[in-house]
Design goal:
It is a single chain. By secondary structure, the chain is mainly alpha-helical. Among the domains are: 1-93, no CATH class; 227-289 and 300-411, no CATH class. The chain contains 18 helices and 6 strands. The longest helix is centred in the middle third of the chain and has 27 residues, at 226-252. The radius of gyration is 30 Å and the shape is elongated.
Length: 417
């Protein structure tokens, strides 16, 4: 490297670098910096930079290539060339990263990874925020595969893994979970897709109160899966709502539900209907109001789905007298909740299926079954297993069961008496 580079403000990624890239993102004016890089190395790692500095189809690329020809005529080895004489190019946007005080460290790590140097300070423990931001920058510059190989070869996922003792649900951190989901999607890391279950169950504050995400980090609008997560939550809430409505409709259908044949069986049904409505209303899951003046659109349930199940499980064993011990809602509702929750073990987006059969996994593009019933679902599942066995994974049937239940237009609830 030339002696006059000692006081240069340029960050030297490769002393033999032959191009200077200046990062001048307007969101971080105090972090504007230049980086001396090796053009051939960066072009091999990043199609974005290959087009920017290596393609004669663009004026920047043609200009840089012409300058490089002159540079190599003047200096036999690029390391002998002063930084001030190197061709340069400006980049004004690095992607929707999270808020940081200074982007120079992040961009230094980006260029180092693309020069096979690794991140500054070693890779034994990389904070999750740093990893997520690196993913965003690499996605912006088309070099995710380089980052993925680096992360896997250096076992960085283990270094950023959550503590073994997970925090309670009440202390769940949505932003941290979203960072993990972003890394899972961009680097195709199957284990971290498990975080999608929490977001589906709890919902997101940005769904409840939509905001402009243009100035927010990319993990607040997860690429490829944000709409899928919303779709799954909405479909599951609709399924629970369908079950509750069905329970009420049983007692308003005119068909006697009490099968004891006692003289007060009709009174038993009336009593049970009243208690059911009061219970659902107390939980905030159902209301009764006149429709004569029209109804205002209500916001969908924005609470924790898992907690909603826990509340429903608290339904008392209502009985009009000691002889009607098994006539109430509890004996009908709990088995159905058990069935739904068993299916909801497949609530998360499956990371393995995301890699092997993404199109079949998505609820957003799935055809809605006209009706769901236990028997028809089992028959269809067997047929689908035969069709998809060649995929080499065995969890497809579980995903299809819960998807068909939640997306079906009508649901044939088989509730025991």
């Amino acid at each position: 490297m030339s002696a006059d580079d000692e006081d240069s403000p340029t960050i030297i990624i490769d002393p033999a670098g032959d191009v200077v890239i200046t990062i001048a993102d307007e969101r971080y004016p105090l972090s504007t910096a230049s980086y001396r890089i090796k053009s051939e190395k960066l072009q091999n790692c990043s199609p974005y930079f290959k087009r920017l500095i290596g393609s004669s189809s663009f004026s920047e690329g043609a200009n840089i290539q012409a300058q490089l020809v002159q540079l190599h005529k003047k200096y036999q080895d690029a390391k002998d060339a002063p930084t001030a004489e190197l061709p340069s190019v400006n980049v004004d946007h690095i992607g929707q990263i999270g808020k940081v005080k200074d982007i120079r460290g992040l961009m230094t790590d980006f260029f180092r990874i693309n020069h096979d140097l690794g991140i500054s300070g070693g890779h034994l423990s990389v904070p999750l925020t740093n990893l997520a931001n690196l993913c965003i920058v690499c996605d912006r510059f088309d070099s995710l595969e380089i980052l993925k190989r680096y992360v896997i070869s250096n076992n960085i996922f283990a270094g950023t893994q959550r503590r073994k003792s997970l925090p309670a649900r009440d202390t769940w951190n949505e932003e941290r979970s979203r960072m993990r989901m972003l890394v899972a999607v961009l680097l195709n890391h199957a284990p971290w897709f498990e975080d999608t279950a929490q977001l589906i169950a709890k919902g997101s504050r940005v769904w409840a109160e939509p905001e402009d995400t243009a100035d927010r980090a990319l993990w607040w609008d997860l690429p490829m899966i944000e709409d899928e997560l919303k779709c799954r939550r909405s479909a599951i809430i609709s399924t629970i709502s369908s079950l509750l409505s069905h329970c009420v409709s049983l007692y308003t259908s005119g068909t006697l539900q009490c099968k004891l044949g006692y003289s007060n069986s009709l009174q038993c049904d009336v009593y049970q209907l009243g208690e059911i409505v009061k219970f659902f209303n107390r939980l905030g899951l159902m209301t009764l109001e006149s429709t004569m003046a029209g109804t205002d659109g209500r916001d969908p349930f924005d609470g924790d789905i898992i907690k909603a199940f826990e509340l429903l499980r608290q339904v008392p064993a209502y009985q009009i007298d000691k002889d009607h011990a098994h006539c109430g809602l509890r004996n009908r509702l709990i088995p159905s909740i058990d069935d739904i929750q068993t299916r909801l073990n497949q609530l998360a987006i499956c990371g393995d299926c995301w890699s092997t059969d993404r199109a079949a996994l998505l609820w957003t593009s799935a055809k809605k079954p006209l009706i769901f019933s236990s028997q028809s679902s089992q028959d269809e599942t067997r047929r689908r297993i035969m069709r998809t066995s060649k995929l080499g994974h065995t969890c497809t049937k579980s995903h299809e069961r819960i998807r068909d239940l939640c997306l079906s237009v009508d649901k044939n609830w088989k509730i025991p008496r």
